[in-house]
Amino acid sequence: MAMLKKRQREGAEIPTSSMADIAFLLLIFFLVTTTIDVDTGVLMQLPPPLDEEQEPPPIKERNILAVLVNEQGQVLIENEPSSVARVRAEVKRHVLNDGADPRYSEEPLKAIVSIKTARQTPYDVYIDVLDEARIAYREIWDAEARRLGARDYEQYKARVDAAGDAAIDQVKERFKEKISLAEPDPGA
Predict the structure, then answer these.
(1) Between helices 84-95 and 123-147, what is the axis angle to 10°?
(2) What is this structure's pTM?
(3) CA-CA 20 to 30 A from 171: which of 101, 122, 164, 186?
């Protein structure tokens, strides 16, 4: 009897020709479906730039509330030591003064809050001061919206938006948020 020789079987192979295509498609899928958080930095609306030959408008010192945050994170309001917690009350007093106190603004439309920092100012203190100034304006807007018959500024704004393009936001027209972020002194 002749011995049958066993033939060696070839191993089963997995086709890899389309593996690169699959990896590429997965990569594209994950890039498209992944959300990337882009809310970094401070959202501010900047005024339009002045023409080169146009002079900046004159501003009385009285209408500027100077807030300084130094390298140690200390807050000075009008060169007097203060705290982050006091910024909100001072901004409201400055904006709502209507000329009553000569240390504060003449009227709400002329009131400017100037926040100045040093180069080494702790970022978290700077953001806290900026937040307090913005919250002060928000509280002013809420109070004015209540005076105009709304629950708060959000409800008032919804009514204005529903009225269409012709409607004017009287609250923001009367109390414009004017926060100036002053540059640090050179060499500071």
Answers:
(1) 40
(2) 0.71
(3) 101
